[in-house]
Amino acid sequence: GRMRQFGVWARRALASFAFSAVAVAPVAAQESTQRPNIVVIVADDVGFTDLGPYGGEAHTPNIDALAQRGAQFSRYYSSPLCSPSRAMLLTGMDNHRTGHSTIIEVLPPGMRGRRGYTMHLEPGVVTLAERLRRGGYRTYATGKWHLGHGEGDLPNAHGFDQSFVLDASGADNWEERPYLPYYATADWFENGQRAHLPENFYSSEFIVDRMIQYMDADTGRANQPFFAYVAFQAVHIPVQAPAEYRDHYRGIYDGGWEQLRAQRWRRAQELGLLPASAQIDAPHPSFRPWSAISGDEQALYARSMEVHAGMIEAMDHHIGRFIQYLQSRGLAENTIFIVTSDNGPEPSNPIADADFRRWMRLTGYTRRVEDLGERGSFVMIGPENANATGTGSLFKFTAGEGGLHVPFIIAGPGIAPGRVDARAFVTDVTPTLLERAGVPLDAPAIDGVSMNPLLSGQAAFVRDQNTPLGVEVSGHSALYRGDYKLVRTPPPLGDSSWRLYNITQDPGETTDLAAEQADLVASMLADYQAYAERNGVLDLPPGYDPQAQVAHNTRMKTYQRYWWIFAGIGLVGLLLLGGVIWLVRFLFFRKRTA
Predict the structure, then answer these.
(1) Of the listed 96, 120, 146, 476, which one is catalytic?
(2) Could you tell me the pTM of the whole model?
(3) Which end of the chain is more exposed for a tag (fewer CB within 10 A), N or C?
(4) Is 196 designated active site?
């Protein structure tokens, strides 16, 4: 363990030295007085402890180097789902104010079209890209968008000069192919127009290639600063990675998810990212013990984690290619880099659903150990591994720490290196970057707070410790204030009761203090209700279950998509029934007249 940890630290030190050596090379570097370029890198479903600087097994030398020379946050929070997180990241506004209160795939029909739940960036919502473009920046986006695909919903209508994006929640990483029966196709768009992927495609490689192409082609504006939004599909399901990356991790995960969870927790403590005295919470009752599954299943889940680590390493490799591109043009030294994740790790196990297994057979997806991660394979790590790669309670979809607590690294001019233990939130990114860019924060008002006083050492907090910070997505709710967190998890994973944790000392959410601190619960609950009222949070229908809602919405989509087939089957059925009735009547009357 200690030898491996030394190896990790050594790799990071070497990576940091390599980055610094190239970045300061005399290649027409920009003057420090110029406004900074901005690169925002968003990984998909990467847990708090997945990246190298946070104790993960994946080799991430390029992210390591950014963490070494920048600020690495230990208490940065996002929302528990992708569209709300991306909307908040790109606007600085609460997700309900943007129109993306949740994701369309889990939206109950009765909420559709209501304010905050339109699944569009609503009128008056202004993105970071749009504000930067008004301020003289050139703006680019490649990768996952998931903020709508209708008229006026794509990046070209929201401040991006050039964009090549996926509108869906996810897609295959090897080809233009949907990953769920909810989608008929994997729809990519270039500058607002339906576009298609090249034959030789791998998502992380293509996302960086297209970003470089856009910047290379924009020579006429090379004197302007740029904003690059690079949104990877790694490590959203289906988790897929080239063999040269995934094979680096042979055997590492053979000990199972309980062992992985304990190791990740211990490493995060050794790195100072979690309190040394903090306890890890007990596994959720729905989680299976590693020893209770068959040897074949163990091999499948261990290999799935190898692919997962390989996909993170592949993403890091292509991040390195982009950094090298910027270095070769003298742009890296004056560039702010952000690396973060939209939410915690993905727990879904769609294979457990019979309808999904039928869809897999129809579409040719496989799940075999021998070619797991390759083209045509469908890989997910499952809820137990997802819980192991996050922090504390649960994972994506929930307001437990596993769903909200994600990595955040920011490096660049004027940002002192070191670990930052102050709490920050996804809405804080937009005001921070606008201030760094010297672009005024005009209307509409935002909810985020600039992190710059914290980053410059002028403040110890982003917000005053007594300022409440609320979050809600699909009934999963939390409110942070001071050292405490009030959180509610609805069924089937919880019972909808409000629980209270000293989240500073107990990030594992092991000790519920609600009963002994009833006054604090009441005070924080009043803060949460004020947050919900201010932002237009709607109550969910009784018995709402996001997984059941996805299944229902998928069936409705299927009926809409193939209504003519179902109508034809129904018509044929009626004709056959009519024929049978006619035949019975004919034989009956024939017998009577005989």
Answers:
(1) 146
(2) 0.89
(3) C
(4) no
